[in-house]
Amino acid sequence: MKIEVLGCSGGMGSGEYTTCIRIDEHLLIDAGSGLGKLSQNDMLAIKQVFLTHAHLDHICFLPLLLDNLFELLESPVEVLALPETLEVLREHIFNWQVWPDFSVLPDKHQPVLCYRPLSVSTPLQTVDLTVIPMPASHAVPACGYRVVSTEGKVFCFSGDTSYDASVLQTFNQAGPINMLMLECAFPERLKTVADQSKHLTPQGLKQFLLQLEQPPENVLITHLKPAFRKEICDELTDLKLPSTLHFLSSGETFFL
Questions:
Q1: pTM for the whole thing?
Q2: What angle do CA 197, 200, 201 make, to 5 degrees?
Q3: Residues in contact with 31: Cβ distance below 8 Å, sequence separation at least 6, in sequence order
Q4: Residue 86, CA distances (Å) to 111, 115, 214, 245, 252 in order
Q5: How far is residue 158's CA from residue 86's CA, in Å, rounded to a whole number?
Q6: Contacts made by residues 118-124, CB under 8 angstroms, sequence distance 24+
Q7: Listed residue (104, 40, 117) closest to 76, CA to CA
């Protein structure tokens, strides 16, 4: 399994791109500004886009992707997400006011976009991967994803989340994780803001990791807000957690 981090930032700036993860050649998790780094041919290879939630930094390049592929596709791009997320897309993005409704273009029988609702903990089989939506605790309905290769290697992405015992329980019930990508958006001094917006701080991340029954050796830290990146990294390093932490940058690639 090839995991390409097209974007992982909690904000914008030179060299900073918001969340978009390409797995192998055909699957995306989220469609933030990192998606814009793909070539036209790479975009054409995308068959499925799994969304964690409907916040703008995670969906902003989805409309542009579909517009790019309008006359080139032989089959629709599947957009897979919780029903609440798909409803936001229908009502507020692909509504003819913000963007054309590609679920009926160029023809409702052969559209560019096909919506597919997901249920938490219900596996979905793709060509060579099993994708399982995992619960998340965010300000809007949201999920993370557990992706399993044919060789049984497991990649988990938390999505945007705060600490929640029920989320942790589901992670523990799901079994071992080879690679975990976990968010941490704010430093500890902004815990009130983090709690209000339902994001993790270093202490929340520590609590999450220490309560994993089978913590992974390596944890990839994502969604760092650029203004606080150094502060968050320093705080996490000082915690001396048992897992090795890697602070993600856009453009990195990993293999499982």
A1: 0.97
A2: 110
A3: 20, 49, 51, 58, 59, 60, 61, 62, 65
A4: 16, 7, 33, 33, 29
A5: 19
A6: 118/50, 118/80, 118/81, 118/82, 118/143, 120/82, 120/170, 121/170, 124/80
A7: 104
Side-chain half-sphere exposure of 193, counting CA atoms within 13 A: 8
Considering just the CA atoms, what is the radius of gyration of the chain in Å? 18
d(CA 234, CA 34): 25
At a CB cut-off of 8 Å and minimum separation 6, what does 87 contact? Answer: none
Beta strands 179-183 and 218-222: pairing type? parallel
Averaged confidence pLDDT in the chain? 96
pLDDT tens by residue, 19-49? 999 999 999 999 999 999 999 999 999 999 9
Domains of the chain, first to last: 2-255 (3.60.15.10)
Q: Which is nearest to 162 in space by CA: 190, 181, 138?
A: 138
Whether omega for the bond prior to residue 106 falls within 30 degrees of 0, making it cis, is: yes
**What is d(CA 1, CA 99) in angstroms, rounded to the nearest whole number?**
34
SS3 45: coil
C-alpha 249/C-alpha 245 separation (Å) is: 13
* pLDDT score recorded for residue 127: 84
**Is 185:194 a contact under the CB 8 Å cutoff?**
yes
- Beta carbons within 8 Å of 174's beta carbon, 6+ residues apart: 132, 134, 146, 156
- Stretches where the chain sits below pLDDT 50 are none
Q: Is 100 helix (H, G, I), strand (E, B) or coil?
A: coil
